[in-house]
Design a protein that fits this description.
The complex is a heterodimer of chains A (about 375) and B (about 650).
Chain A (H helix, E strand, L loop, with lengths): L1 H24 L1 H11 L1 H9 L7 E7 L4 H8 L6 E6 L3 H9 L5 E5 L3 H6 L7 E4 L4 H26 L4 H4 L19 H32 L1 H6 L5 H32 L7 H25 L3 H17 L12 H8 L2 H15 L3 H30 L1
Parallel strand pairs in A: 1-2, 1-3
Antiparallel strand pairs in A: 3-4
Chain B lengths: L3 E12 L2 E12 L3 E5 L6 H8 L7 E6 L2 E2 L3 H7 L3 E4 L13 H11 L4 H14 L15 H13 L5 E4 L8 H18 L2 E6 L10 E6 L2 E6 L1 H5 L4 E9 L1 H11 L2 E5 L2 E7 L3 H11 L4 E8 L3 H9 L2 H13 L12 E12 L2 E12 L3 E5 L6 H8 L7 E6 L2 E2 L4 H7 E4 L11 H11 L4 H15 L14 H12 L6 E5 L7 H17 L3 E5 L3 H4 L4 E6 L2 E6 L1 H12 L1 E6 L7 H6 L4 E5 L2 E6 L2 H10 L7 E3 L3 H21 L2
Parallel strand pairs in B: 3-8, 3-9, 6-7, 7-8, 17-22, 17-23, 20-21, 21-22
Antiparallel strand pairs in B: 1-2, 1-4, 4-5, 9-10, 11-13, 11-14, 12-13, 15-16, 15-18, 18-19, 23-24, 25-27, 25-28, 26-27
Helix pairs in contact in B: 3-4, 3-5, 5-6, 8-11, 14-15, 14-16, 15-16, 16-17
Classes of the chains: A mainly alpha (about 375), B alpha/beta (about 650).
InterPro entries (chain B): AAA+_ATPase (IPR003593), ABC_transporter-like_ATP-bd (IPR003439), ABC_transporter-like_CS (IPR017871), P-loop_NTPase (IPR027417)
Protein name (chain B): ABC transporter ATP-binding protein
GO molecular function (chain B): ATP binding; ATP hydrolysis activity
């Protein structure tokens, strides 16, 4: 019995060393891995932002009254950026069409006079909502500014000053921001990108490693050796998991923590342990792609096909509650969905095993299923 | 009017610092079937691509149709007179298009007028006997048919010069002969000039003239007869017991000395047949000499003689002398592999049907057959990868039905891809396989030293496998397959892409393994000349073993059934095929500038030939394994066709 274990261990060890050596000699792939876990995550964290920033705004002031000037002066940075004024309607439309402006504010003539005369009045706002998120944000910010101005001018007209305003029956909304007190996009984007990259490599690396052996014919040599299918695949997946965990450590300790001050609220050990579990089980999808594909190019394309829905259905962009019912079901089948919960939970919320139990169970269940079917496919093809 | 179509002077091509071809001179005349012969990496493809105007070159000059190829524009000027068929089965064709669609596509690509294209298509499809398959998608054709279709597509725009890069590589012997016959017919009827490359030395005699290339250099140029004269001498084929002692004595007198199954074949340079016979008889005095034939050298012998360095041979002789005694008493009656009625069905398709054979310990057993004959499936069952549908088998003392894992641990396997990790070094590859087979540190060190010795890899220990030449790579793969000292070794097309010198060294190692260490070997090969190295052969056709005997016995059987092989030389050899067939000689085929006739009626053949005005009497040629293979498969295919036709 002891001899059997020794034999199995020796086989595992030589296969593991072989995989790592092969990867180490593939300079291009190695450079790609390092780039993805450092520079790419830095770009995502610093560049991509989901908030309204310096939206290009043009004004068409046909009133030129003190009231119109006061209202327009309230559209300020950081949300808005005044880019000047336009005279004609056609010029305003042209600016929107050409993308020179995102917003055009039009103040009609008589705006100041009507306001002073106690009559209701309106201004027009045209918004480019090609990017629906930014368009929505611009509209709501503008709405807030205009209604605030309307309220103030109404109170002034009623002769009430700021002190009196306190006695009015208005509702104050007191917001408490948890987990990301400064609401920095870089925290969310950086971590989400790191998880995405880990997922991409978790699928791609084992797929590439296996399909390369298929192309070269070495897999045949392994099949006729006393190695079992599990004995061939297990060291591959273990070594790739190790490499990806190193990549995650690289991005965490070199980019996210020092440059973006991401707090690690929970246990790092727990985070890496669960990341390892996630990567290992997701590798089954890569094995699945590699069994179907005949060459590296096909394996790459299949991996993209598998990855695209996984990333979109992860819940990073839309929580499951906001999804149509049928898509919600698919989301619960995406292992990345659970991993996101786990990673954000540990890193930002400081959750422990107890809080994460459902996510861990979900991820392990799906992962084992995926890995098992990958192994089964391989066994069927080469058994 | 013999004008020069291709003229190269001092031609050279360099790839990233590596010189593929250098200082090459050659001239091809109109109407010639000009051959470029040499192993992989000899520079054949580079020269052919440059002639076709699709590859630029650095050294020397290249003239095609009298046009100096020195720029894109000058190359463009000759392209409509050239047809190029690149290397690889059906490489220039579209797999999803049918035979006819492929031909039409190439006709339109070359802007052939519609009526002319249609007429040429019919003519070419008829000559190549593809007319019956015009609706079949290309990817469903056999290798030989793909190459014939490639030839049709290359010829559709009526080029004057066709360039065929290894058109017969990977094609089974029957289709290969068919291809050469069709090519000869087309060259004669269309007034073509052809530049054709091949890695098979035995195809050389089909060329009008040729260049023998090796590592970018020209070794020899001329007609087959002229090249054979470059290394005059005699080949002796003899059988003497005990074989090991005979081998030891003979390798001392001849640089080229190799075991062919139970026989020994050696080349004695500059000796006449009489001298050679006398010399060998003297050397073998005291041994039981059962057979002693003197033959003419073949092109491969000349190739090896031109290349051979005295150092390498000295080394071989030494090792043989040192190992001249078996290490242990061999029980040659013990069975290493026994297949009993093995069958494998995939749905309705019978891949292997009722296959039985036996391989004894220390025997080299050859499994021959065209692609799709079931060789690979049979090997997969015997190596425990694929469970058989019915039948049973014992491999290395284990039952293949129950003890697949045990078999895997006891056998060695080497495939045609030389399954090495190219990004690992020599030592790393060996250590990896040692680990997989569970060797401990001590055993690994011992085997590592043994493999480096056996394969001659000293000095290359830390080189990556990808940087090794093919011959060394092959021996490293063999070493890896032998790391756990298996008693049974499976070799699946182990010598493809290796030059003749490397092949000979490889077979020498296999011989020693079988005779000295008693390793049993099952080899598949498509080099028919290699089948002669085997002690025993099984010929597979359509999933069945249709012949099971020693190479010698197979040849003898063919001789008694169909008679001797005669070579007929005449000025108008090609024109004699039809009258000879009419006269009742069924087995007539063009062979280079000569004809080959297989017949029992020697005297009548002489008479008929005299009646046709042929002065030279027909010469007897030794039958090769390829003759046996082609005849047997031809008979079986005719039977199968008759069975299909009758009910």
């Amino acid at each position: 019995m002891k001899a059997d274990w020794q034999l199995a261990w020796r086989r595992f060890a030589v296969m593991l060393v072989k995989e790592l050596k092969q990867l180490g000699r593939d300079r291009v792939l190695l450079a790609f891995i390092v780039y993805a876990f450092t520079a790419d995550i830095f770009l995502a964290a610093s560049g991509v932002s989901l908030s309204l920033n310096h939206a290009a705004t043009l004004v068409q002031d046909m009133d030129h009254s003190p009231q119109s000037r006061e209202l327009l002066s309230r559209f300020q940075s950081p949300y808005f950026r005044m880019d000047g004024s336009v005279g004609q309607d056609t010029a305003a439309l042209a600016a929107l069409d050409q993308g020179r402006a995102m917003l055009v504010l039009s103040v009609p003539p008589q705006f100041g006079k009507q306001l002073a005369g106690g009559q209701p009045t309106s201004i027009a706002m045209q918004v480019d909502t090609t990017n629906s998120v930014l368009g929505f944000l611009a509209t709501s910010h503008a709405q807030q500014i205009v209604s605030q101005y309307g309220l103030e001018s109404a109170m002034r007209r009623l002769g009430l000053d700021d002190k009196a305003a306190a006695s009015l029956p208005t509702v104050q909304n007191d917001i408490r921001v948890w987990y990301n007190p400064n609401q920095q996009d870089s925290w969310f984007m950086g971590v989400a990108e790191m998880l995405n990259i880990a997922t991409v490599f978790a699928v791609l690396l084992p797929a590439a490693a296996l399909v390369r052996e298929k192309e070269r014919g070495t897999v045949e040599q392994l099949i006729v050796s006393p190695l079992s299918p599990f004995g061939i695949l297990f060291p591959k997946v273990v070594s790739m998991t190790g490499v990806i965990l190193c990549g995650v450590a690289l991005s965490l300790f070199l980019i996210l923590i020092p440059l973006f001050a991401i707090p690690v609220k929970g246990s790092l050990l727990l985070f890496f342990a669960l990341s390892g579990l996630y990567v290992f089980t997701t590798a089954g999808l890569g094995l699945f792609a590699a069994t179907i594909a005949r060459n590296l190019a096909q394996a790459g394309m299949l991996s993209i096909l598998i990855l695209a829905p996984m990333l979109f259905l992860s819940g990073a962009w839309t929580p499951p509650e906001a999804m149509p019912v049928w898509l919600r079901g698919l989301m619960y089948a995406s292992p990345l969905h659970y991993y996101l919960d786990i990673a954000f939970g540990v890193l930002l919320k400081g959750q422990g095993l107890a809080e994460l139990q459902p996510a861990i169970l979900g991820m392990s269940g799906i992962g084992l299923l995926v890995f098992g079917s990958g192994l089964l496919l391989f066994r069927r093809q080469f058994g | 009017m013999a004008d020069t179509i291709i003229r190269a002077s001092g031609f050279g091509k360099r790839y990233a610092g590596h010189l593929a071809v250098s200082g090459l001179d050659l001239a091809v005349q109109r109407g010639e079937l000009y051959g470029l012969i040499g192993p992989d990496g000899a520079g054949k493809s580079s020269l052919m691509k440059a002639v076709a105007g699709v590859l630029s070159y650095e050294q020397g000059q290249l003239e095609v149709f009298g046009q100096l190829l020195d720029s894109e524009r000058s190359a463009e000027a000759i392209k409509d007179r050239i047809g190029l068929m690149p290397q690889g089965l059906g490489q220039n064709l579209y797999g999803d298009l049918s035979v006819e669609e492929n031909v039409d596509f190439f006709a339109r690509l070359r802007l052939v007028p519609r009526a002319e294209a249609a007429a040429r298509k019919e003519q070419l499809l008829t000559i190549t006997r593809l007319a019956a398959f015009r609706q079949r998608p290309m990817k469903q054709l056999s290798g030989g048919m793909k190459q014939k279709l490639g030839l049709v597509c290359t010829l559709i725009h009526a080029p004057q010069l066709i360039i065929l890069d290894e058109p017969t590589t990977g094609v089974d012997p029957v289709s290969r002969r068919d291809f050469w016959a069709i090519l000869a017919e087309l060259i004669a009827s269309q007034g073509l000039t052809a530049l054709v490359s091949t890695a098979y030395m035995d195809e050389a005699s089909r060329f009008t003239r040729m260049s023998v290339l090796h590592q970018g250099q020209k070794l020899a140029e001329g007609s087959p007869a002229e090249i054979l004269q470059r290394a005059p001498g005699s080949i002796v084929l003899c059988r003497a017991e005990p074989q090991l002692e005979a081998m030891r004595r003979l390798s001392a007198i001849a640089g080229q000395c190799e075991a062919m199954g139970p026989a020994i074949r050696l080349f004695l340079p500059d000796m006449s047949a009489e001298q050679a016979r006398g010399r060998v008889s003297t050397v073998l005095a005291g041994l039981d000499c059962q057979q002693l034939d003197v033959l003419e050298p073949e092109l491969e012998d000349v190739f090896v003689a031109l290349l051979a360095t005295p150092g390498a041979n000295g080394q071989q002789a030494q090792t043989l002398a040192a190992l001249a005694a078996p290490r242990q008493a061999l029980d040659s009656s013990a069975l290493a592999i026994e297949a009993k009625g093995l069958s494998k069905r995939f749905g309705d398709f019978v891949a292997v049907g009722d296959v039985s054979f036996q391989v004894r310990q220390g025997e080299i057993f050859g499994l021959l057959g065209a692609n799709g004959a079931g060789k690979t499936t049979a090997i997969k069952m015997l190596t425990g990868i694929l469970p058989p549908s019915s039948g049973s088998g014992m491999v290395a003392g284990a039952d293949m039905k129950q003890a697949g894992a045990l078999i895997k641990a006891r056998i060695g396997y080497m495939s045609q891809a030389f399954s090495l990790y190219l990004d690992l070094s020599v030592v790393e590859n060996i250590r990896l396989y040692a680990g997989i087979y569970g060797l401990n540190r001590q055993q690994t060190a011992l085997r590592l030293a043994w493999i480096l010795d056996m394969a001659g890899l000293h000095g290359h220990e830390n080189d990556l496998a990808s940087t090794l030449p093919m011959g060394l790579r092959q021996r490293l793969a063999l070493g890896c397959a032998l790391v756990h000292q298996p008693r049974v070794l499976f070799l699946d097309e182990p010598t493809s892409g290796v030059d003749p010198l490397g092949r000979r060294a490889f077979w020498d190692i296999l011989f020693r393994l079988s005779r000295l260490d008693g390793v049993a070997m099952l080899v598949t090969t498509h080099y028919m000349s290699e089948a002669e190295h085997c002690d025993h052969l099984a010929l597979m056709f359509a999933g069945r073993v249709v012949a099971d005997a020693s190479p010698h016995a197979m040849k003898q059987q063919l001789l008694t059934e169909l008679g001797q092989l005669y070579q007929v030389r005449a000025d108008n050899a090609a024109a004699l095929v039809a009258p000879l067939r009419q006269a009742g000689f069924a087995n007539v085929s063009p062979y280079g500038t000569a004809l080959h006739v297989l017949t029992l009626e020697t005297e009548r053949l002489g008479m008929v030939l005299r009646g046709l005005g042929v002065g030279q009497p027909p010469q007897v040629r030794p039958i090769s394994m390829e003759d046996v293979f082609v005849q047997r498969v031809g008979q079986l295919e005719a039977q199968k066709a008759a069975q299909k036709g009758s009910p």
